[in-house]
Amino acid sequence: MKLMKGSRLKRGNKSVAQLKKIVKLLRVLDWVADLVIISNVVCIVILLNNETSPQMTKWIEIFLDISLVVLFIELGVRMYYKRNFWRTPGDVFDLVVTTVCAVSFMPSLISLRTLRLVRLIRMLRIFSINKHMRLFSEAMVKSLPRVAWSSGFFGMTLLIYAIIGMDSYGATAPEYFGSLSRSLFTLFQVMSLESWASAVARPIMSVHPLAWLYFVSYILIASYILLSLVAGVITATTVEVYEHEESHKDILTAIKKLQKQVDELSKRLPSENDKKE
């Protein structure tokens, strides 16, 4: 029984060694992809400069095409070795972005402006090359449902104040509150605190002295309470994502400790060759 357990442990050690090699390979591929993406960003910035010579532009375009092939190879290797590739949002995002960028191989089918936009899309992969950028983008995506509810509440508040402003100050300031669309745009300007007092509020207050209650209450609700609520939602989601990442680290640390114990135990057990001798 001990010999059978020893052989099983050795087989387990071989599989663990293979997994370690795969992990190292994936890390090397990540580093290669990081360098390619960063160099692509630099090349795209150079291409957007109108002073770039035609010869340099040609070489940069060749390099961008080669880089895209390298990124496809990197994704193919990652898809082959990672079983949870399709369940990882970052991997699926990289695949979608790289696939969209493949349109650059067909310049005759698209215009120059579209080609530039496609190349700019390639820069989105920079969000997946850094741990903190990846976690922050993941937190932004996860916070969208909560932010949507906050945006709905803000939309209702904006609509109510727009109707009140149109009914109360439409005749006094038709350029700001003459219609519902103008009222909505004016309130959006007031929310951004862009010249709201001198351009909007004070001319109306010269005719309606109590109009300051309308503007001040709206600014308190829209600019301070609601925006702080949205910022709090995003912050709370970011903290949750980072805590989840830290829990994964603890699990990996426990697995490494368990692997060391298994290695020590396998060394103590006799092997099959010892049995034959």
CATH topology of the largest domain: Helix Hairpins
Poorly predicted regions: 1-6
Mean pLDDT: 76
Helix proportion: over 70%
Helices and strands, in order, run as HHHHHHHHHHH
> Helix- and strand-based class?
mainly alpha
The main pleated sheet reads as: none
Count the DSSP helices: 11
CATH class of the largest domain: Mainly Alpha
Radius of gyration: 30 Å
The tally of beta strands, per DSSP, is 0
* Distance linking N and C termini: 17 Å
Number of domains: 2
Q: At CATH's second level, what is the architecture of the largest domain?
A: Orthogonal Bundle
Basic shape = flat
Q: What is the percentage of strand-forming residues?
A: under 5%
Q: How would you explain this protein's 3D organization?
A:
The chain is mostly helical and 277 residues long. The two termini are 17 Å apart. The protein has helices at 2-47, 54-81, 89-101, 112-122, 131-142, 144-169, 174-177, 180-191, 196-205, 211-268, 272-276. The chain is built from eleven helices and no strands. It is flat, with a radius of gyration of 30 Å.
Map the helices and strands:
Elements (H helix, E strand, L loop, with lengths): L1 H46 L6 H28 L7 H13 L10 H11 L8 H12 L1 H26 L4 H4 L2 H12 L4 H10 L5 H58 L3 H5 L1
Helix pairs in contact: 1-2, 1-4, 1-10, 2-3, 3-4, 5-10, 6-8, 6-10
Descriptive key words:
277 residues; mainly alpha; Four Helix Bundle (Hemerythrin (Met), subunit A); Helix Hairpins; 2 domains; 11 helices; 81% helix; 0% strand; flat; disordered N terminus; VGCC_Ca_Na; transmembrane; Volt_channel_dom_sf
Outline:
This protein is an all-alpha fold.
